[in-house]
Write a structure and sequence with these properties.
Nucleoside Triphosphate Pyrophosphohydrolase; four-stranded mixed β-sheet
Length: 181
């Protein structure tokens, strides 16, 4: 059996611009059958996640209400990369805005595709070492975050219990664990 081949794209169109993402439709030909099929895609700028680690081995996490899940979640800081912004700069910015913490040691640890069936963007994960409070939280009118310090050794239990269940946060924490050896 031969390996899967790329499909020939016939047309792409944007169906809806939803500010932080766009919904698009693609018509493509199957390389196996030559049949035309329609697919839907969500286009977004790349994202960042930050695992802020304090000097006393705690992870700076945030609680915030998420409209998709209709609940308050426990997450690491993160968000969209602004146009022209480097991922590391976005990571430092999101850390400061959502937590009031800063770090002079923001290092990349991994990149994932959030869901290749629907998304074409990437989520970049960084670790911010020696994170410390440097400012007030700078939430926008559409967000409200509260900082929660989680001892690193509690992460496995919080993941296994489902308290932390955001897939990209789980991936970010895994990248962090890999970077720590």
């Amino acid at each position: 059996m031969s390996p899967p081949r790329p499909w020939k794209v016939l047309a792409r169109e944007t169906l809806q611009d939803c500010a932080v993402f766009q919904v698009g439709r693609t018509r493509a030909l199957s390389p196996a059958t030559g049949d035309e099929h329609t697919f839907y895609r969500i286009d977004s700028a790349d994202w960042v996640n930050v695992v802020p680690l304090t000097s006393d081995d705690q992870i700076v996490m945030i609680r915030q209400y998420r409209h998709g899940a209709d609940q308050v979640t426990l997450e690491i800081p993160g968000g969209l990369i602004d146009p022209g912004e480097a991922p590391v700069a976005a990571a430092a910015r999101e850390l400061l805005e959502e937590t009031g913490y800063g770090s002079t040691r923001v290092e990349p640890v991994g990149v994932v595709n959030p869901n290749p069936a629907l998304f074409g963007n990437r989520c970049h994960t960084f670790v911010a070492r020696d994170a410390a409070p440097v400012a007030e939280i700078q939430n926008t009118a559409t967000e409200e975050t509260a900082v929660e310090l989680v001892p690193r050794n509690e992460l496995p239990q919080r993941l296994q219990s489902g308290e932390i269940d955001h897939a990209l946060v789980v991936a970010g924490l895994y990248w962090f664990a890999l970077s720590e050896g």
